[in-house]
Design a protein that fits this description.
The complex is a heterodimer. By secondary structure, chain A is mainly alpha-helical. In chain A, about 75% of the residues lie in helices and about 0% in strands. In chain B, strand 2 and strand 3 form a beta hairpin. Chain B contains 10 helices and 4 strands; from the N terminus they run H-H-H-H-E-E-E-H-H-H-E-H-H-H. The chains are: A mainly alpha, B mainly alpha.
Chain lengths: ~375, ~290
C-alpha cells in the first residue's frame, strides 16, 4: 500500500504540468475566495500565513539549503521589513493612496531588509560555519535590541493599530513572485556558484566562481524576501513588537526548511504548508472544533483539558519535531528533489539521470 | 572610588556566574567542535532543580547544590546520548539545529510543567557588611569564591588527571586516540556531565542572587556565557574564565553609564565585532583551514 502511494506521489511530482496547474488554481482561488467568501475568515487567515511562511522558507532555503551556510537571522530581516513597511503606511504614506502604495511599502520593506543583509553578507566572505551562525544570531539580537531602544518606533511596546492591508491576492502575488525569483536565481549561473560554494568554497573559488559576488547576491536576495514576508506579516497581524521577531520565529522557519527538505523549492513549499497547517490544527480552538462530534459527556472534559493545556504543549511539540526530523528524517519531505515544473528544460535530463542523489547535502562522500 | 569598587564587585559576581556556564560551552566545543546551544537551558533546568530541592525536599544549601549539580549533569548526559551522539558523523549544521531545538524543548517543557515564575526560598542567611561605603554581602562572597573554587578544580581535573588528559587527547585528534585505548564515548559523556554540572551550580548561584526564576531565564544568560567563551577563545578553558569576567565587567559598566536596555545591544555588538576581527578570541589560536 505504502509503496503504491509512494509511486503515485513520485509520479505526481514528475508531472511537468503540476507547477503550472497549481499556479493557475492558486491564482483563481486567491481572487475567488475573498470575493465570494468561499471559506470562513479563519481559514483565509491560515492561507495567508501559509503564503507568508512559504516566502520565508524558500528564501531561508536559499542560504541554509542551497548554499549550505547556517543563518539564524531570518527573523531579524523579517523585523526590518515589517517595521519599514509599517512605518511607511502609518506615518508617511497618505491614507487615500493605500491600495496603490501598499505594494511599494512592501517593496521598500524588502529593499531595506536587503541592505541590512549586507551586515551578514560581508562577514560571510571570510567566516563560515559555526561562526557565521553566531554572527547571524548576533545580528538578530542586535536588531531586536536596537528596536527596543528606539522610542520613536514604539520601543519594546511595538506598533499597534497597523492597517490590515494584506489580502489573499497580494499574498499570492508576492509568494509567486519570490518563489519565481529564487527559482530563477538557483538555476542561473549564480545558482551554480551557490551549489559550488556548498560543496567546497575554496575549490569553487579556484574554479573561478566569484564567491564574494555569489554570496553577496544570495544573502541579499534571501533577506529581501524575508523583508517582504515581514511587511506582509505586519499588515496581516496588525501589531508588531520586537518580541514577535525573536529566535523562536527563526526556529519556526528552520523547522519548515528542514521538514520540507533542504535545497528544494518544492520541498519548502510543502514543508511550510504542512507545518503551518499542523500548528493551526494543534491550536486549542481547532482541536475543540475537531472533537465536537463526540458526545458531551466525553467532549466537555476533553475540551476543558485541551483549552487549558494544549497551547503550551504545542510549543513543546514544535522543537521536539525539529529534533526528530534532524535525527530520523534528515532529508525531509523532498531533500534535494524538486517538482519537475521548477526545473528548467535544459536541466531535466540531467536531473532524471541523478534522480536519486546519493549524498545528502553537506555530507562528504 | 567607592562607586567603582561596588561596580567591580558586582562585575565579579556576574562574571563568575557567566564563567561557570561558559566552561560548559568551551569544553564541549573543545572536544567535539560543536556549539551546544542547549547549554543555557541546562543552566535554567539547574535553577529549577534547586527550586525543587529547596522547596519540596526542604534541603539546606550544600545538599541542594550537590543534588542540583548531579541532576543537571544527568540532563546533560541524556541530551548527549539521545540527541548529539547519533549526529556525531552527520553534517555539523545538523548538530547545531538539534541543539537549538533541544534548548527550545527544555524551555517549553519546563514552561508546560511550571507555568508561573517561581520563588526560591532563602537557603542561606544573607549578611551584608558595610566597608567604607562599599556594601559586601555574604552571598556575593560565597558566589565568587565557590565559582572560583569550582574553576580551579576543573582546571586541575583537565590539566592534572588522567580523565583530563584523555579529554585533551580527544580534542587533539579523534582518529588515533581510540586506538590508544581511550574510551572516547565515555570521555565525551563525562565532558558533558562536568559542563552541565557546572551549569547546574551556576543555576543555584543565580537563583540565590536573583531569587525569581522562570523557564526563559536561560536564554539570555546562556548567550552571554557563550559570548564569554568566544571572547576568551572558544575551546580554551582559561580563556572562558577570562572572557566571562571581561563580559561581566563590560555589562556592569554599560548599565552604570547608559540605560540598562543597552546592555544586550552592547554585548552582542561586541560579539559581532570580535568575530569579524579576532574570531579565535583572546587566548585561542587561529586555525588554518586545509583544502
Amino acid at each position: 500500500m505504502s509503496a503504491v502511494l509512494k509511486d503515485a506521489w513520485n509520479g505526481l511530482l514528475d508531472q511537468a504540468w503540476l507547477v503550472p496547474a497549481l499556479l493557475l488554481i492558486g491564482f483563481g482561488l486567491a481572487f475567488a475566495i475573498p470575493e465570494y467568501n468561499l471559506l470562513n475568515k479563519y481559514i483565509q487567515l491560515v492561507l495567508m500565513y501559509i503564503g507568508i511562511n512559504i516566502i520565508l522558507t524558500v528564501s531561508l532555503n536559499l542560504v541554509n539549503g542551497y548554499m549550505g551556510e547556517f543563518s539564524l537571522a531570518h527573523a531579524g530581516f523579517m523585523a526590518v521589513g515589517a517595521y519599514t513597511a509599517a512605518l511607511l503606511t502609518m506615518k508617511v504614506l497618505p491614507v487615500a493612496a493605500y491600495p496603490v502604495l501598499f505594494p511599494l511599502a512592501v517593496l521598500a520593506g524588502g529593499i531595506v531588509a536587503a541592505i541590512m543583509g549586507l551586515i551578514v553578507a560581508v562577514p560571510s566572505f571570510k567566516i563560515r560555519g559555526d561562526y557565521l551562525a553566531i554572527i547571524t544570531l548576533a545580528f538578530l539580537m542586535i536588531v531586536k535590541s536596537a528596536i527596543e531602544n528606539i522610542d520613536y518606533i514604539g520601543g519594546p511596546r511595538g506598533i499597534p493599530g497597523i492597517k490590515r492591508l494584506t489580502t489573499l491576492p497580494w499574498v499570492f502575488f508576492w509568494t509567486v513572485a519570490t518563489v519565481w525569483m529564487i527559482r530563477n536565481f538557483v538555476y542561473s549561473k549564480y545558482g551554480r556558484g551557490v551549489l559550488a560554494i556548498r560543496e567546497d568554497e575554496i575549490a569553487s573559488d579556484l574554479m573561478s566562481v566569484n564567491t564574494k559576488r555569489v554570496k553577496f547576491l544570495a544573502f541579499m536576495l534571501s533577506s529581501f524576501c524575508a523583508g517582504i514576508a515581514g511587511a506582509l506579516f505586519a499588515h496581516l497581524l496588525q501589531f508588531i513588537s520586537p518580541r514577535v521577531f525573536d529566535i523562536i520565529k527563526t526556529t519556526d522557519v528552520l523547522i519548515m526548511v528542514y521538514l520540507g527538505g533542504i535545497a528544494s523549492i518544492g520541498g519548502s513549499i510543502l514543508g511550510a504548508t504542512a507545518y503551518t497547517a499542523l500548528m493551526e490544527v494543534l491550536r486549542p480552538s481547532t482541536m475543540a472544533a475537531l472533537f465536537n462530534w463526540l458526545p458531551d459527556l466525553i467532549f466537555d472534559p476533553l475540551n476543558q483539558y485541551i483549552i487549558q493545556n494544549l497551547g503550551v504543549w504545542r510549543m513543546v511539540i514544535m522543537p521536539l519535531l525539529l529534533v526528530l526530523v534532524m535525527l530520523y528524517w534528515p532529508r525531509g519531505m523532498m531533500g534535494q528533489r524538486e517538482f519537475r515544473g521548477f526545473i528548467p528544460r535544459r536541466d531535466r535530463d540531467a536531473y532524471r539521470r541523478i534522480n536519486a542523489p546519493v549524498n545528502a547535502p553537506g555530507e562528504k562522500p | 572610588m567607592v562607586y567603582w569598587l561596588q561596580q567591580m564587585l558586582n562585575a565579579l559576581q556576574l562574571g563568575s556566574i557567566y564563567a561557570l556556564i561558559a566552561l560548559g560551552y568551551t569544553m564541549v566545543y573543545g572536544i567535539l567542535t560543536m556549539i551546544n546551544f542547549a547549554h543555557g537551558d541546562v543552566f535554567m533546568v539547574g535553577a529549577f532543580f534547586c527550586f525543587l530541592a529547596a522547596t519540596y525536599l526542604g534541603l539546606p544549601f550544600v545538599p541542594t547544590l550537590l543534588l542540583t549539580m548531579i541532576g543537571a549533569a544527568l540532563v546533560g548526559v541524556l541530551l548527549e546520548r539521545l540527541a548529539y551522539k547519533p549526529l556525531r558523523n552527520a553534517p555539523r549544521v545538523s548538530a547545531i539545529i538539534t541543539a537549538l531545538g533541544l534548548g527550545l524543548f527544555l524551555e517549553n517543557f519546563t514552561l508546560a510543567l511550571a507555568p508561573y515564575p517561581k520563588h526560591i526560598p532563602p537557603l542561606l542567611e544573607n549578611v551584608t557588611w558595610d566597608m567604607g561605603g562599599v556594601s559586601l554581602s555574604s552571598l556575593q562572597v560565597l558566589i565568587i569564591f565557590l565559582s572560583l573554587g569550582l574553576m580551579f578544580l576543573l582546571d586541575y581535573v583537565v590539566h592534572r588527571t588522567p580523565v583530563g588528559m584523555a579529554m585533551r587527547a580527544i580534542s587533539w585528534d579523534k582518529t588515533f586516540v581510540p586506538l590508544m585505548g581511550i574510551p572516547v564515548d565515555l570521555i565525551i559523556s563525562v565532558t558533558f556531565a562536568i559542563g552541565a554540572g557546572l551549569a547546574g551550580a551556576a543555576g543555584v548561584m543565580y537563583a540565590l542572587a536573583y531569587p525569581v526564576i522562570d523557564p526563559y531565564m536561560g536564554i539570555m544568560v546562556g548567550w552571554k556565557a557563550f559570548i564569554s567563551a568566544v571572547v576568551g577563545g572558544i575551546g580554551n578553558i582559561r580563556g572562558a574564565m577570562i572572557g566571562a569576567f571581561i563580559l561581566g565587567g563590560v555589562e556592569i559598566m554599560v548599565t552604570a553609564f547608559f540605560p540598562s536596555t543597552y546592555r544586550d545591544f552592547v554585548a552582542f555588538t561586541l560579539l559581532l565585532l570580535l568575530i569579524v576581527v579576532r574570531p579565535y578570541g583572546i587566548l585561542g589560536k587561529p586555525r588554518t583551514q586545509k583544502v
